[in-house]
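Weekly structure sync, notes
Attendees: PL (lead), two postdocs, one rotation student
Agenda item 3: pending single-chain targets
PL asked that the sequence for the first pending target be pasted directly into the notes so everyone works from the same version. It is reproduced below exactly as submitted, 302 residues in total.
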Amino acid sequence: MSFAKSKNDFSKKDMNFFSEFSSAASQQISSAFPIFLLATVAILVFTLIVWIVCGIQVMKKQDQINDIKAEMASAEYQARLAAKDQSQALVEDLRNYYYVISSLDSKIASRATSSVETLTACVDALPDDTVMIGYEDKEGLVKIQGQCLNRESAYNYLKTLKDKDLFSFVQEKIESLDPMKEGYSKNSLMYGQMLYTFEFTCTLKGHFTVSWASFIDGPSPTPITSLRTQSFNAGSDYKIPDVATITADGTTYNLKNITINGVAVSAQVLEETINTKELSGKVSSNLEIQLFYEAQNDGGES
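Predicted structure, written out during the meeting:
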């Protein structure tokens, strides 16, 4: 009996505990619900505000885009685009024109320098009793005419020219001169003084030119520098510095390819040129060098 009573008392205590626990839990849930509801409302309001702000920004951006599209579609903007295209075409035409003019100027300058140097060397080699009466330099073929007192002077002059190693002689002619047949009178100072005439025809030896220019690579390469030409003796070393990159109109270009007399150099020569930033070699013939470039991207590479 007492055992059943104590068991019953224990069950009542359990029931009271669960009842009190449930009541406390209900009170906590009731007090937390307004907080949860308020937090939910705050999140919704914040989300709505963000959505409204984003919507306003999107509308503003769209308005700006529409304004830009309208401006681009306007006749004034199209006229400016057309003017820009015309300006770019004009710049390319001027570059091509400048390249052609500089090419001619460079060739003339190189030719004139070569002719003057050769003529000076020929005059300096004249013996004391010899005068030059004719000199012609055309496309590397040189004709020298003169008069002297004796045949040995003409041969000495020829030997001196050969020692200078300027020419490869093609033809030589030395003849006696009759002053009377040349129109000199007996009272003329020239009478009896110039007894021989000579004519040497020869070709310039060991004289070559190296010309180079830079181009923007493309189906029709656009020149971005003038043609430069320099004269060299056979076997001399030539060097073209600062070829790895070039800047024109605010744009930087990287070296992409090189041709020498129309033939592309090997990949090894191109890589070495880019690494050393210069193109060099020996001169054994006339060289026409073209350097081709492509625009550098924002990352510094082509």
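Discussion points:
- The two ends are 102 Å apart (CA to CA).
- The domain at 208-295 is CATH 3.10.20 (Ubiquitin-like (UB roll)).
Action: rotation student to compare against the earlier draft before next sync.
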